[in-house]
Task: structure prediction
Amino acid sequence: MSRRPVNPSRRLADGGSISFVSSIKAKSQNSPLLSIGLVIVGAILLIGFIYSSSGGSSGDIKDVSKLEGGASCTSEVLHALPILKKAYGDSMRKVLHVGPDSCLLVPSLLEEDTEVWGIEPYELDDVSAKCKGLIRRGIVRVADIKFPLPYRAKSFSHVIVSDALDYLSPRYLNKTLPELVRVSTDGVVIFSGYPGQQRARGGEVSKFGRPAKLRSASWWIRFFVQTGLEENETAGKKFAQASAKKAYKPACQVFHLKSYP
Result:
């Protein structure tokens, strides 16, 4: 009996159909793994977006602590805040922070259940989205502290100033310090660097107008007397006592001034 020859085109078609069916099966087996992988990647991207948008207090503290080189009294404010609250008690309810990096410091202080505002005394470079939001809402202002502050008298319970007065000459300190006292009701707290501390920042002179002048405690005390400002000895003693109990040693000089009557 003679056999009918197999049609090559049919054999090719049959082989093609088999490989097609096999590929369908392979895809159906791999699709769950592919879906799971896509879900995981999407979740990672979503978490990253949420964190970058909202920020985090730990990130803020890290940013404050990693200020450009040298000693920073602004980061020291964070460490000293619990001690300040012990010294001033419930009167520390509405605080104005004055100094570079207020945009970094204010969000961290807001988490301490304290109403906080800020003044950036110099032009800002590479402003973050969070900082732009604080400025847009009026929580942080950019203002030259060599001129009258944009606030009414006694607008805040306390004014905390750091890394700002060290860059002012006595000519401008004569105007700036009384302004800080004017807008407070319960005192001004000054964080100033110790003489000999390195305060080398990139572009320091171009941004601040002059290198930091780190003055001794005796210089500051004489200056307070000359400008008619009175130290708050009671708050100073409470601050020292609270610091001793917590074994806290400030990395910067801390001065306490009374507000005007």
Q: What stands out?
A: Residues 8-18, 20-25, 47-70 have pLDDT under 50 and may be disordered.
